[in-house]
Amino acid sequence: MSEATPMLEVRGLRTQFGTGAGAVRAVNGVDLAINPGEVLGIVGESGCGKTVLALSILRLIDAPGRIVAGQVLFEGTDVLAMRPRALTALRGRDIAMIFQQPKASLDPLMRIGSQIAEPLRLRGGRSRAEAWREAVELLGAVGIPNPEEKARAYPHEISGGQAQRVMIAIALALRPRLLIADEPTTALDVTVQAQILELLRERCRVLGTALVLVTHDIGVVAQMADRVAVMYAGRVVENGKVADILGQPAHPYTRGLLRSAPVMGAVQARLREIPGGIPDLTRPLSGCAFAPRCEARQQAGAARCDSQAPPSFLPRAGWQARCWLQAGAPQAQPAPEAWA
Ligand SMILES: Nc1ncnc2c1ncn2[C@@H]1O[C@H](COP(=O)(O)OP(=O)(O)OP(=O)(O)O)[C@@H](O)[C@H]1O
Ligand code: SF4
Ligand SMILES: [Mg+2]
Locate the ABC transporter domain: which residues (predicted)? Predict the structure, then answer.
C-alpha cells in the first residue's frame, strides 16, 4: 500500500457525551490518516479528546457517549458501519489496543502465559500446546526474564513495567496491522517508561505494525513518532511530519506545548505552562477554540479568531494547521461548521 492510500482514515469524526449540562463535544470533527508501518503520535493536554478518539476508532464508546458523525475507514471499510462479527474480527486481529493501566487490563485470576496463549488459540487457530509455547516465546521477545517460569505467574506477582510488557505481548501476539497505545507508560517510572517505549517501537518495526501512540508528552512524540497530530478541544489543530512540526510549529498551541515540555537532559529553571485551560466542551464556540489562550490572536486578526473557526490550511505538502496565521497557505478542506 502506498502513502497515497492510508491503512486507516478517520473522516469528520464526532463523538459526544450526553450530560445534564449538555452534550460534551469530546471529538468534534477529526480527520486523520495512518499509513502502513508508521508511528503516529497523538498529543494534547488532558481532556482534549485523545482517549475518546482512540476508543471511537474501535467503536468502544459506551453510553452516554455516542459517535454522531464521520467515518473510520480501515483498508477502505467503514468500521462504524461494520456488523458485530466483522467488528470482533477487526479488534485484536487487525487492530489492537493497549490501555494506560496495564494491571487493570490483565485478568488477576489467570496466569499471564494463558492470557497471551488464549487469543492465539481462539483467534489464531493454534493448539493448546502450540499457543503456550508461542506465549513463552513472546514473553521472551518483550524482555521478560525466565519466560518459562514467568508464564506461570499471576499478574500480582509481576511489576508494573513487566505487566506493560505482557500487555504489549498480548496486543502484538496476532500480529495486528495497527496498534493503538493510549498513554502506555504514564503509570511507570521514567527509566522503565523509556525502556517500554523503545520495546514498543522495536516490536512494531519488526512486525511491520503501524502504531498510534497517544500521549500528553510531546517529548515522547519527538522520540518515537514519524508523524504527529496535535489535538485541542476535540479537533486536530496541527498534523504532519514530526521533523517539520516540532522544528517549526505552525500553530500557537503546538508552540505552547513545546515550550512547556521538559527538555531531556537539560535542567530547566521553570517551564512555561500555556496560561488558561481548555474550553467548556458543552458550550458552542463560534471562533477558534484556542483564542482565549492564544498569544498570536492579535497578530492573526482578533476579530476573525474570535468569530470564525479556522479551516485547515496547508503551510506545506503533508502539513496541516488550523490557524488563521496560515491564511496565506492553500486550504486543505472547506471551513468546518461552527460548533453546533
Ligand atoms: N463518559 C464520559 N462522560 C462525559 N464526558 C466524558 C466522558 N468521557 C470523556 N468525557 C469528556 O470528553 C473529553 C475528552 O476526554 P478524553 O478522555 O478523551 O481526554 P484525553 O485527551 O484522553 O485526556 P487525558 O490526557 O487526561 O487522558 C473531556 O472533556 C472529558 O471530560
Ligand atoms: S486562529 Fe487565531 S486564536 Fe486560533 S490559534 Fe490561530 S492565531 Fe491563535
Ligand atoms: Mg486519555
Answer: 8-258
Best probe residue, ligand 1, of 14, 24, 282 (max atoms within 8 Å of C-beta): 24
Sheet bearing 319-321, strands edge to edge: 95-98, 178-182, 210-215, 39-43, 227-232, 235-241, 319-321, 313-316
At residue 180, φ and ψ (nearest 5 deg) are: -105, 115
**Every domain of the chain and the residues it spans:** 8-232
What is the CA(122)–ligand 3 centre distance, in A?
30
Domain 8-232 part of CATH 3.40.710.10: no
Q: What's the CA-to-centroid distance between 255 and ligand 2, angstroms?
A: 12
84 Cβ contact partners less than 8 Å away, ≥ 6 residues apart:
none
Q: How far is the CA of 50 from the centre of ligand 3 (A)?
A: 5
Residue keyed to cell 488532558: 46
